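Technical note accompanying the year-one report. For the benefit of new consortium partners, we illustrate the data format agreed upon in the data management plan: each record pairs a sequence with a structure-token string. No post-processing was applied to the example shown here.
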Amino acid sequence: MSGSTESANLSLVELNKGFKIDNKCLTQLMKEKNLNLLQDLGGANGVASALEADNELGIHDEKENISRRKEAFGSNTYSKPPSKSLFHFMWQASKDLTIVILLGCAALSLGFGIKQDGLKEGWYDGGSIFIAVVLIVVISAFSDYRQNKQFEKLSKASDDIPIDVLRGGRRQKVSIFDIVVGDVVFLKIGDQVPADGLFLYGHSLRVDESSMTGESDHVEVDCSNNPFLYSGTKVADGYGRMLVTSVGMNSSWGQMMSLISHENNEQTPLQEKLSKFTPLLAKIGLAVAFMVFAVLLVRYFTGNTKSENGRFGKFKSGKTRIDDVANALLDMVAVAVIIVVIAIPEGFPLAVTLTLAYSMKKMMADHALVRRLSACETMGCATIICTDKTGTLTLNQMKVVKFWIGKESVGDGAAYSSIPRSLLDLIREGVAFNTTGSVYKPKSGSGFEFSGSPTEKAILSWAAVEVNMDIDELKKNCAIQHVEAFNSQKKRSGVLVRRKADNTIHVHWKGAAEMIVEMCSSYYDASGVTNDLGDDERMQFKKIVQGMAASSLRCIAFAHKQVQDSKHNDEKDSMMLEEHNLILVGLVGLKDPCRPGVREAVEACQFAGVQVKLITGDNVFTAKAIATECGILRPNDQEMIREAVVEGEEFRNYTPEERMQRVDGIRVMARSSPFDKLLMVQCLKQKGHVVAVTGDGTNDAPALKEADIGLSMGIQGTEVAKESSDIVILDDNFATVVTVLRWGRGVYANIQKFVQFQLTINVATLVVNFVAAASAGEVPLTAVQLLWVNLIMDTMAALALATDKPTKELMERPPVLRSEPVISYLMWRNVFAQALFQVAVLLILQFKGESIFGVSDKVNNTTIFNVFVLCQVFNEFNARSVEKKNVFKGIRKNKLFWVIVGITIVVQVVMVEFLNRFADTERLSWSQWGACFGISVISCPISWVVKFIPVPAKPIFSYLKKG
């Protein structure tokens, strides 16, 4: 079928929901890059008309219209693989080898028990183990399921990008998921193209299509040769508008995205360290379990078990039934396996995942979106933060507060009337056309609405209100010929304009004052007269700029030149704007106030041993003024300031040796390029620092990737910067960076608490079971009781200890070095003290409990079980702080901790008092309960006393440093 025939069919028939074009045609157009079909459809304007869209006004913003478009062309969402169900995690947990062995033991025990004692009485032993194992599998699976849901939620938030669209003649931000076919979308450097579409208007637009094609070369997009834009690609240069033609699964990238699931299998540094420690504990556990099993086996068959009524009974050759022997052997195997289960700290990864998920959720509430798990804990090790100025240390609320024409400062509105009309026209022209922002005036006349970057909005607002700029009228009278877009290296932008009235061509430049002044050979004075810009005048302008910069103002200059038409007739020459011998039109000073509380945030970092460096594109005077105001520089120490402040070019030109020598002392780098920022990060990392870097521009991507923690800005940051970062600071506020630092340290501290708690149980359980088995041929705890202890130790303790909020004390200590192991000497001191106490208590009760309390063997065994569990409850309190003696500080704020402690005690009471057959326990009297609590609570004063014992600074297990 020819393109013209297809076009005729499409243009004559209204296809769906009233639109004169359908998905099939639009998909074919984009997929084949079919310029002939596009021409037959009337070009981009013809497609816009068929989609009932207007290039200048966009689409109507009514809900009915948006809904109609979604019904006709689909929504901008991708179908993804279904999320994993709870049953999936249960199946994964049940495939663990130890769980399989325990279930096998339970099944055999159940069979022998029923055969021997009948169903009514014989199911208890095997059934109890089975129920306990299933309970552990369900709780573990539910915990994993919840964390997975949490990560999916955060991943969706990460994908939700705000997009600038034109609807009803008004520029506004909408979610990428709300983009519809027919939308007119604004694109600028660093943006992600949100859907497939056609180029409508723009300048110097180049797109990085490597995500689609794998080609690294940037593709130029224009109206004639290549008007096609594809979702998922990134804008590398220039700016423009596009008409959306395909969204979601109908877009070229839709099928690719549908295959991508945000499954997070990343191992964080902490998990890697702990995973290297796990095999050691597993080997110890296996050795102890084997020895316990061997001792029990030998003592059983030699008739040296404690009594006939003990755990395994007493073997008598020729008299003991084969079923009893089988049950005894199964019980021994179960106990041995459970010792291995307890010894292997499977709770380590769970605790890390829990605390990371909890921290990520809380950080989201504190305006920080974590994109990479490892960044949470790495941030706790940060020694240096390299920060931007605009929007991070400042409010990003720009306002023009100074205006200079020539060497004269112009005051408020009344003073503008004295400026010649011709000069005001040049200012209006230079502002209206040399901008990526826009001005919208509602028909109701309620005032202007400005969009764009804060700098653009401030200049547009000043021009519209103070200089009476009518941007719509100017656009009618002039036509843009060419644009040179702003980027952070050139720090300027230019535009070539043809005036329709006299057909003259004019170049307008706008940018950093020092750079624009260098391009000028003359200037306008307040009377509109042109004067030569000699050395003396340049020095005077330099002082004007420095004076504004010293007042923390950003200085922007405007320059102009009328050029010969012949110079721009050649297409090749027209690509280069005239940038020499310009006339300086004026200077504006923009004030961006420091954020409230930023000085306190900087001081908090410094107090925590984290150095803050300011890296900015502003000139050195503005940078010093802001750095002093924020507390990065101390105003009284001029000698230090001379050493601490450099410009990017100076830093770049140092020898490698000079850079390494000076980099630690630098506090402020002004007039820096993205390459300078990258160079700074590389030098700091070579010196062993853990570096966090903030960035918002596309060119910041290399530094964000190179840094240990890349922090992109959520408001001003481009999509390229966000994708290169580890954490997105949603409010662009430096105080949020400090919050992330505190949460990072909190992650590390919470993991240490849990590890200390779990190691205590590991040591105590292994020692008690081995000593008891070797000396009495019995173990003090049954398989079900050990499984309950394992549940307390893993899932419940992880929930209680891994969800503590970070304390102020964490910001009073130096950063944790990455080379330091998780388990410190302080922790081993606490572990051995508590384990020694628990071992001593349990062994005394094992051998002397019956005589001390005057109770039966069954009650004594229950007392041992009860004391052991209650010791873990009180040890959870002790584990809340590795160093601090007062472990109860701030405990009221952690409601989950109290819930876990309460559940543990309630379940323990139920197991002792009501589930006697299930847990193999005997009911205890009030006095016996009191004795159990009294013995267990002794662990608290022991913890307090032990923390007075000094320990060496050098950590134990130095081989862990390799992790």
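Partners are asked to follow this layout when depositing records. Residues 1-14, 570-574, 955-963 have pLDDT under 50 and may be disordered.
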